[in-house]
Amino acid sequence: MSHFTRPHQLPQQQAPEIESLPPDGPAEDLPAGPTDATAVPTAGPADGPTAGLPPGDDLTDAPTDAPADEQPHAPADAEAHPPAPDAPDAPSTGWRDRHPVAARAAAWTTTVLAGALVLVTLLLPNDAQRLTAAEFVRIPVEGIAGAALLLLLPPTARRVAAVLGGVALGVLTALDLLDIGFNEVLGRGFNVVFDWVLLGDGASFLQDSIGRAGTIGVEIAAALLVVALLVLPALALVRLSNLMARHAARAAGTTLVLGTAWVLASALGLQIAGAPLASRSTSDLVQARMDGVSATLKDERAFAKEAASDPYHHTPGNRLLTGLRGKDVIFTFIESYGRSAVQDRLMAPGVDAVLAKGTEQLRKAGYASRSGWLTSATYGGSSWLGHSTFLSGLWIDNQQRYRTVTAGDHLTLTGAFKRTGAWRTVGIMPGVTKGWPEATYYGLDHVYDSRELGYKGPKFSWSTMPDQYSLAAFERLEHGRPHDKPLMSEIILTSSHNPWAPLPKPLPWNKVGDGSVYRSIEKAGKNPVDVWQQTDQVRTEYGKSIQYSLKSLISYVEKYGNKNTVLVFLGDHQPVAKVSGDHASRDVPVAIVAHDPDVLKRISDWHWAPGLNPGHQAPVWRMDSFRDRFLTAFGSHPGPGSPR
């Protein structure tokens, strides 16, 4: 109960002036209490000290401008009820009230950052070369349409739409970043249907390059980035939508002005630094992704029919490869061995010198060689796509095609050798670290993976063992042992695999042993992180890695080859853009080396260049055309009922 007597009981001269209460003060300045329906009105002759306030509230804390002698007298029992010593003070105001300038600045800053974030997500290109300031000063039509929609929606629907729109922007931004990464490494954008599996391969490559701890750090950072991309744009759109709702008229006018500006800029074709001022990049990217998914699904069906149609599918073994009977045939892939290795101004001098010297070494040993160019189905990575394209005669440029062909029975080059029954077929696969069911599809009697080659030395970054050791193991396990049949071998050389540091060095063949000798070489090698800090250094080390692989292979043939040796070696793809350069071709060198002159006579109509270096004038074929050309040149004939 109040300690004041009601107004009608006070002497008239003790009534305070009404101005003693602030007329327009904030609600927080008035003491809270229950509302009394019988309270005396705040104007008129009955005005008193509690006028306009609920009965029972104490005015001693209320602000007043009245003179001291006009203040209401304290109740008689005021001294009898002093405030408790531990009674709490009046509720303190928030930090915005204590620091209004800072609060206002923080609010404006947050709003500006929210707007900038939404603008960046709408205008972010999916190509690193377009990451320029001009790209982000354009007018996005999607932003205008989104603002108009948010202004029309009721509050609840508006908040839901803002959250969903923000999440969608975050997902699109993540896909744009994946596009940038894939374009830099593989020369193509990210396919949302079948490229997710490659992220795991990327993590494995990182672990081999920077170690487990560094890889975990990168994975944590990537996970945090994904969460931020899903949350921050949504929060930003919610904040902006609330701001527009509070200032609906001004927001509608701004949206109308921007919409008009976009229409005019689009009609007039206005540009900023070559980029159209009127942007619809997000809509175009969404449409492109939808078209890509549709095209991928159609391609899967079309490719399945193509793979099922093979002119050599029913060819009996006795009509295959009759021109190579009795020969030891070796197909060797050199990792990342591309046109840039033999024609780039920085890398070519060293590689060309190795090829020239190797041609002469092999000539002295009784071998002749011819070389040309093949256009790979892949670039910068995904070596298995290049391998399967070369061996199957089908254009396999994505993971779905690879799965389709390896799940079928389309004849491969290696499978053709097995079908004849005239060769033992083996694979030397140092890059395979676990079970490889594709061995059956490729027609290999036995595959020696990294676990079966007997290597006791250190890894060289991604490469599990040096190329020279892989070749020495091949000689020890297969080629150097007596067989009742000649060998057909598929050998993958991995020392030239990204990141090209540290690198092994050539050794005398009798010093290779079990690989333990490489420990000191690996420790003395360069750190991949240090190498990748400078583009020229990366390219230099890449060139050295190709030189090492070529020297190892040429030296092997020179030492262990014989009159029945036929070697076909090629690159699987070009190195990444940081090495090969922007817009590089997908061409890789290919060469055939043979001791028997009749082998090269059979390919005389190919018009390949003499020696191991194709030069600039050698013909360029698509890689998927090689299988049929090779089978035809060496005595194979399409089977019964073939359209050929």
TrEMBL record:
<keyword id="KW-0472">Membrane</keyword>
<feature type="transmembrane region" description="Helical">
    <location>
        <begin position="220"/>
        <end position="240"/>
    </location>
</feature>
<dbReference type="InterPro" id="IPR017850">
    <property type="entry name" value="Alkaline_phosphatase_core_sf"/>
</dbReference>
<feature type="transmembrane region" description="Helical">
    <location>
        <begin position="136"/>
        <end position="153"/>
    </location>
</feature>
<feature type="compositionally biased region" description="Low complexity">
    <location>
        <begin position="53"/>
        <end position="66"/>
    </location>
</feature>
<keyword id="KW-1133">Transmembrane helix</keyword>
<feature type="transmembrane region" description="Helical">
    <location>
        <begin position="160"/>
        <end position="178"/>
    </location>
</feature>
<feature type="transmembrane region" description="Helical">
    <location>
        <begin position="105"/>
        <end position="124"/>
    </location>
</feature>
<feature type="transmembrane region" description="Helical">
    <location>
        <begin position="252"/>
        <end position="273"/>
    </location>
</feature>
<feature type="compositionally biased region" description="Basic and acidic residues">
    <location>
        <begin position="70"/>
        <end position="80"/>
    </location>
</feature>
<keyword id="KW-0812">Transmembrane</keyword>
<protein>
    <recommendedName>
        <fullName>Sulfatase</fullName>
    </recommendedName>
</protein>
<feature type="region of interest" description="Disordered">
    <location>
        <begin position="1"/>
        <end position="96"/>
    </location>
</feature>
